[in-house]
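#struct-help
A.M.: can someone run this one for me? Single chain, 185 residues.
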Amino acid sequence: MTPSFSRTLNALGLLAITIVLAAAFFDQIVFHDLPCPLCLLQRAGFVGAGIGLALNVKFGPRPSHYAIMILSAFAGGLVSVRQTLLHIIPGEGTYGDAFFGIHFYAWAAAVFGLIALGGAILLLFDRQFAPEAVPGRPTRLALIAVALAAAMALANGISTTLECGGGMCADNPTSYQLLDQMRGK
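D.P.: on it. Structure tokens below:
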């Protein structure tokens, strides 16, 4: 696998993570399904995995960039598995909306597993780490992927600040704390 092809694969992976974050953000904004603290940690795991991919896109593939991606997926996966286990106890109920009958935290566990597996598989291709005679520049697709991922990370960061008001987030949030504080509620 050439460094250029690796960058393209990393850009596609970054777009996939951006779609996951955008879907969660869409659900939050349109359906007023505010994320719980565990959901916010999962989003942070996706952003961390995206950072590893974005580093590969911008600076070329490096094992350390894949390590960031895999470690972020592992951390996010632990949080999503914990949340799934909290909600499988009979009588406990679930949190948030379901997508095709499966809750977002269960989907997140599966996606984090795929991210870690994909990163480990990509690490098997040593040729991508060879120095190029003429270092390749990121493609337009790659730059768009990085820009969209950065925008989603920023949007999620802003909404988290609005939701938590700079302090502890509510276990079952019903409103944006910072906006409520600004309105005097």
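A.M.: thanks! The longest helix spans residues 3-30.
D.P.: also worth noting: The two ends are 57 Å apart (CA to CA).
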